[in-house]
Amino acid sequence: MKKVPLREKIGYGVGAIGLDLSYGLFYSFLSLYLTNALKISPLFLLILAPIARIWDGVNDPMMGSIVDRTNTKMGKYRPWIITGAVFNAIVLSLLFNIAGFNAGTAGVYIMVAVFYILWGMTNTLADIPFWSMIPTFATEEKDRNLVSTIARTFSGLGQGIVSIFTSIVVVKFAGESGKNLDELGAEALSKGFGIWSIIAAAALVLFAAISVASTKETVYGDKGEKFSFRKALGVIRHNDQLLIFMLFAMISNCGYYMTSGISSYYFLQVRGDLTLQSKFNLLGSVGSVLSILVIPICDKFMSNRATYRFSLTAATAGYIGMAVVGYLFGGNVLALGICYLIASIGIGSMFVNQTVMLADIVDYGEYKLGTRNQSLTFSMKGFLQKMAYTLQSIIMYSAFVLTKYDFSGGQTQTVVNRSANNAISFMMFIVPPVMLIISHIIFASGYKIYGGFKREVLDAVTAKREALANGE
Questions:
Q1: What crossing angle do the helices spanning 141-174 and 276-290 adopt, rounded to 10°?
Q2: Which among 378, 353, 340, 148 has a CA at the least distance from the CA of 260?
Q3: What percent of the chain has pLDDT over 70?
Q4: Where are the domains of the chain?
Q5: What angle do CA 283, 286, 289 make, to 5 degrees?
Q6: Mean of the per-residue pLDDT values of the chain
Q7: CA-to-CA distance for 167 and 408, rounded, in angstroms?
Q8: pLDDT 10s digits, 422-458
């Protein structure tokens, strides 16, 4: 079995920094930018997000099949990683630099819709091939775990940069010293986010280039078939473990995304000080860094299944602690941050385990169906993440509409009624742990690629590869 040199693992993982700079900026701060700088209605966003996901349901598996059929001198994945990074960088910059139209006009709404959907498409171009490369790195479980851990560590670094520094950097580039992000007017806010998005876009391309230059691909025999929706849906439908994975991963990811999406509104509206979010996110980022230790330590005396259950338990405990602090102890930021640190340790290791699971599901699909469908399977990772964000968006924007929450742009102290504040707190503290618990139940009852059966699958797939290599 192939062992991957550490320098290649690190070179590969670096690419995740840029992907998550774009990912984090889009999903954690786009809402604030759209509503406060461009004065986009939350009802419009409530409609737009599901429409974009319907298209992703077509686009993501199509892209996965295209990658599976790619055959160039650079390999299957690397050409798409760099191409996707360039296009995603362009769209990210355009989305955060919408100019030439008055805020709130039909032209702005059209441009937002177009670039919102294009961002998802171009992100898919880079994201699917990037994560699809993992099973080609190693077949040995511990080596595969390490590759995933390193990549997820760099992914967490990208997210941490966005969550901690965006407020500071946007204010700096807005040119209004002495103000906080929530005090900026629409024009200043737009300027700050515009410059910051260009920097993130440049970093995305740079880190993608480093990743592509540092890695080597090992492609196994199957060139894949010409794409058809019927065949793609058949592959997905008949891989029962992929369907179970998509369900429990989407629910747990939504719980995490709810925290990252609603926390800015919680600290701005409920607590009245958005700067507290940076302190809160800083402790969460520390937890994400510490999460890289979970897999190597647990590998010594736990199976991947037990490690995943431990991760979900830690995340759930951290979120329950946040609820207790938020409702019973006045929401002390330090206490909230410590609980979030614990939750982030669990979430970070959960993400690593999910990546490893997908690699196992690729093997299971080949074992059960006879074809590898590697990129098509990994395309479901990006799709389920987008679905998790969509579920989070539907919950969040529905609550804003129902409670008549007015957060139109540039107001230092927006008047928010009590029901809106209660809804924000509920989404901050109750929704995440409930989703983690539901996800845990589904995983424990439905996921079966572990133990002796997992070894049986891997042995069968390895034997097939050796036979192909020997021309049998």
A1: 160
A2: 340
A3: 87
A4: 6-212+230-469
A5: 155
A6: 83
A7: 18
A8: 999 999 999 999 999 999 999 999 999 988 898 898 8
Give the distance between the most distant pair of CA atoms in the chain: 72
Rounded to 5 degrees, φ, ψ at 75 are: 105, -165
Per DSSP, the residues of 169-208 read HHHHHHT-TT--GGG--HHHHHHHHHHHHHHHHHHHHHHH
Closest to 78 measured CA to CA, from 209, 187, 188, 235: 209
Dihedral class, residue 409 (left if φ above 0, else alpha if ψ from -120 to 50, else beta): beta
Helix (H) or strand (E) holding 106: helix 106-132
Determine contact, residues 330/318, Cβ cutoff 8 Å.
Answer: no
The answer to whether 191 touches 173, Cβ cutoff 8 Å, is yes
Unique residue bearing structure tokens 């699958």: 457
Q: Which two tokens stand for residue 160?
A: 């941490």
* Residue 390: C-alpha distances to residues 44, 113, 250, 260 (Å): 13, 15, 10, 13
Whose CA is closest to 429, among 351, 368, 339, 359? 339
Nearest by Cα to 200 from 165, 174, 176, 175? 165
CA-closest candidate to residue 354, choices 389, 314, 382, 391: 382
Give the dihedral sign, CA 157/158/160/164.
positive
CATH number assigned to the domain with residue range 6-212+230-469, chosen from the 4 options 2.60.40.1270, 3.30.70.100, 2.20.28.10, 1.20.1250.20: 1.20.1250.20
pTM (two decimals): 0.75
Helices (H), 293-332: 294-298, 304-328
Helices 42-69 & 106-132 angle (0-180, nearest 10) = 30
pLDDT of res. 340: 96
CA 262 – CA 266 distance, rounded (Å): 6
CA distance 377 to 119: 21
Q: In the prediction, which pLDDT does 472 show?
A: 57
CA gap 219, 229 in Å, rounded: 24
Using pLDDT thresholds of 50, 70 and 90, give the confidence band for residue 32.
confident
Q: Average of pLDDT values for 291-316?
A: 88
d(Cα 96, Cα 306) in Å, to the nearest integer? 42
